[in-house]
Amino acid sequence: MRQITGQEPCVRVCRSVCSLCTPGHHCGVDCYVKDGKIIRVEGTADHPYNMGTLCAKGSALRNYIYSENRIRTPLRRVGERGEGKFESISWEEAYRIIAEKLGAVKQTYSPHSVLFFSGYTKWYLPIFRRFASAFGSVNYATDSCACNVAGVIANKATTGGNAAPNFPNASTFLGWGYEGYFSSHMSVKSVEALKARGGKVIIIDPRYTPAAKNLADIYLPINPGTDGALALGMAKLIIDNGWADMDYIEKYTFGFEEYKALVDQYPLDKVSRITGLKPEDILEATRIYATNGPACTYFSASAIVHHINGFQTHRAILCLSGLTGNYDRPGGNGPGAYSLFHRPISFPTKEPAFQAHNRPTGTPRIGEERFPLWSRFSFDTQAMDLLRQLEEETPYPIKAIFGMGMNAKMFPQTDKLLKLMTQKLDFFVDVDLFMNETAKYADILLPACSSLERGELKNYPGDYLFYTQPVIEPLYDSKPDAQILVELANFMELEDEQLRQGYEAAMDFILEGSGLTVAQLKQAGKPVKAPASRPVPMGQYLKNGFPTPSGKFEFCSNAIAAIDKKYGLDPLPSYTDPLADQNEAEMAEKYPFYLITGARIPTALHSRMHETPWLRKLRPHPACEIHPEDAQSLGVADGDDVILASPTGSIRVKAMVTHQTKPGVIQMLHGYSEANVNLLIDRDHLDPYSGYPGFKGSRCSITKCQEDA
Amino acid sequence: MKYRFVLHEEKCCACASCQIGCTDLMNSDPLGTIPGCRRILHWEIPGKDGKIIHTYGSVACMHCADAPCIHACPKGCIRRDSETGFVTFDSTACIGCRRCSKVCPYDIPQFLPEDGKMVKCDGCNDRIKQGLQPACVLACPFGALECIPAEAYRPDQDALPTLMEKLKERK
Fold it and tell me: Whole-model pTM?
């Protein structure tokens, strides 16, 4: 045991990034290296994003990197799928088998019968997309088929752009499902700064979180899944009280009369009944939102859209910013300019061109016929329809999956998906750092390395670009994901010269026009502001028109109206029950609890850190949150074993009795192999607009275990 | 210069960044699982009106003015650094008798299963002397933990008597 100060002569300090969570963060880290090993990780003090800070997960980075569970060499399956029996093979042999097996599927069926699917960490996605296109498959998907993008599409279908909160100029913060401490630690400073200058904070969340305690001036403990009704009710109050910005509405919006007729159906007493909130609290929150100067709204990546009514709820919340004239105005929500690697940037890059090259068309993607709105706005497959297509083989069979960090646990009814993959696939290749549940089903498994073992291009707020250098050599026989894809593209002689030139050449192409090259960035060794940076002021849409069919902010969405009527999608942001498909009397009686999955805890993200010892130690057992009143009536004490169940599956977990959740609401974290709550989510419990599962709104039962495990 | 730790309760969320940051510093073996010398707490306690009060906090050695552990150790492992004021230790002679733990009102000294010896927070004494922040303070993303010169400590604002009492009750 020793106290590393960084001033020991044998220790070298290297900059890199933590890529444990979503690409929207990826904080800068300083790694202390001694004898080729990382012995200490700290946040980079002058990094333009995290400015020295790290979350608990980031501080455990080296414990994650040096996991015993790392895949060390390329592996070939020798046991049954899922059994986890493999033998080591060479990279050359692995590439030969992959080329042969994928080629066979392509020849026997079609290139579209191969699904290219990526989970985290996404840094190689431009390369992976090009690989799929060069192979000739229309089927390319990422974890975005169940996270964040539904909100992006809802924004686009309403405004044509995005809807990023403009904190620095806001007087009011509407934190809808906002829990920044555990999911977006840098945002807390922005909210604190707003409060410090006298701003007001409204937090709407069924869960009483540290954000609700530390930051909220008004906290609305809403009944889960009823947010859409609240947004419509708030809209009615805003109109009825004369708080709407009628000048903005007249000049810049489309469909106001129809929208007004919709919100008129949501008077305060009805909204209070649906949401479980006091009328006076709804009125006060609405008054502050609408009258206390510029107000920006926070949209969570998943809290809202993980309901089967989530897409429309997101739209209903966004419509409040149009109603009050807060969209595309300072202190409101802005459309943003461009994006690069899932982060905003102020100037155009060639990432879209790089990704679009040779993208196959003409064959329906998985989910295209079932989720037309998704397919209208996304080039990706909606893989929430994968399970059905694997089973029914319509409109064509899926016979192989090329996974990059594929995680079956992110799919509803994981067990059913893995069973179908076992039965139906001719071939499954997966690339991962760890031997996890999904990896065990792979026929060929390739070892990837972590962000600390590779170089990659990142971008950060303020148009900073950073090309990292490896802190240590890739551990064991692992390689950077992009390198694996490029080597394989060359081995398979895919017809795409640009792809085959490699990752750095691709990044140089993408950066054309930025004023920087990979070589320059490598030499700099730290984040550099791009010379092309030209921050776009608020008001561009108001000045030049919205990029929507009407040229305006669309309360009534023309994009949705254009979808075939047989799908029954409503152009207005109407409210439907979050459990609409589970409300039959028998179902409601047998499964009386409302199940929310995936509310963040500080020491985990999805399933990625459940096996990281330092973090797991802090919360060793999968546990569900249950309100003391429910616990008492069920005779359940804190720490008791309970069974959570739905018609599709059940898991055994510990009960965590807490006032953080509401009576009648069970909260369960996802991603545990031994207690995967997604077994309880029905594969067809999906939002018809986005295809997203109702991860945060479905029925369950909870019973105390009678016998000991 | 002498130093004091300060917890700003209203900024804390019990995220354990402090604890993990400490773990990362204290443990130079990448695969080891030595717990950090901090621990976090989340209490839900009914207030006078019956309403539940949530408390988030982070606890480590209080570096007590009259530290009972110093007197309890039969081997003289625990001492006060006269420069920083922190209660430090050298466990070379530790026999694992756990007297330090028994007398500590806050249950701070812990025992490593590997060698049966005591470990506790020493305020990152070496780092402080080199002008660096303690690992936990550095790791807190919310500015909830500070290590400040003793003369800047404001007992009326920085002391947390209720929290300290509850910690003693819960030992």
Answer: 0.96
